[in-house]
Amino acid sequence: MKHFKEDFLKLPKADVHNHFHLGGSQKKLLERYPKATISFPEKYDGLPGMIDFIYGHLNLIMATKEDVINFMEIAIESAIEDNVTLLEASVDVGLSRFFNNSIDAVITEVKRIQEKYKSQINFRPDIGINKDLPLDKVYAYADKCMQSGVFYGIDIYGKEANQNLIPFKELFEIAKKSNIKTKVHIGEFSDYKSIEDTITLLNPDELQHGINAVNSEKTIDLILERNIQLNICPQSNLSLGAVKNIQTHPIKKLFDKGIKVTVNTDDLILFNATVTDELYHLYKNNIFSFDELEIIRKNAF
């Protein structure tokens, strides 16, 4: 039976790798900011190119606390429009700089958004931490977020290669004791050895990306042994140049090895691919059958 994009849109979906303030659609951004003159590229020059674009373009629009709130609201509205019924999105604690450096104000806003949309979507926010944030702030902000009862997960991100993750070991141990799901970005632009080292050190529940595990049977075995889920974002990998094209994307090999994979948006505003788009693209290009994509869709729940 042939399936169409509308078939994927109708299905309830989860997005579990999403950076909240970058999670809105380009269409909704321009509806909210009709005077914004912004041209989104199809390809970015790796992570540095993406960061340059954010600072040089998006951050000219997202300049105040009210803008941050707008960006978060268009993210949740975009997810609802795509029939995403479960959203695990990381709220970057560094956004506190827009709220007079008050993490409490950020928590209050996230809770308000959660309450506002609760009849339409199960929004389970993650504590988003950039590895470059000063460690005293990392621990102070994360502690307040965990104590709040608003957050369900913690996600650390930033530059992957040659990063010292030892300072985050205690944080992940505290999170686990607090029944907070642990996620870490690794293995998109770093090698399989970095994935092994991260798993050994932090023992995360899930990896954001993790696609370079495909280059080592030992790494794959470690992921399987620990039952770690890989939250993969194919269009992000393509747009950032981590993967050449959809045909060579390692997601199918990882799936065939028995690894639990999910398909997600990462930063919808930058990569312009909803969860529906991602699933349909994988189906249309004969990477997965519809039945296989049903397994992947359900994994995210």
Helices and strands: which structural class? alpha/beta
The name of the CATH architecture is Alpha-Beta Barrel
| Strand proportion | 5-15%
Number of strands: 9
Mean pLDDT: 96
Biggest sheet descriptor: 9 strands, parallel
CATH superfamily: Metal-dependent hydrolases
Percent helix range: 40-55%
Rg from alpha-carbon coordinates: 18 Å
CATH domain class name: Alpha Beta
Kindly summarize this structure in a few lines.
This protein has one domain: TIM Barrel. 47% of the residues lie in helices and 15% in strands. It contains 14 helices and 9 strands.
Q: Mind explaining what this structure looks like?
A:
The protein has 14 helices and 9 strands. With 301 residues, it is α/β, with parallel strands linked by helices. It has one domain: Metal-dependent hydrolases (TIM Barrel, Alpha-Beta Barrel), CATH 3.20.20. Strand 6, helix 8 and strand 7 form a beta-alpha-beta unit. The longest helix is centred in the first third of the chain and has 17 residues. It is globular and about 50 Å long. The model has no long low-confidence stretch (mean pLDDT 96).
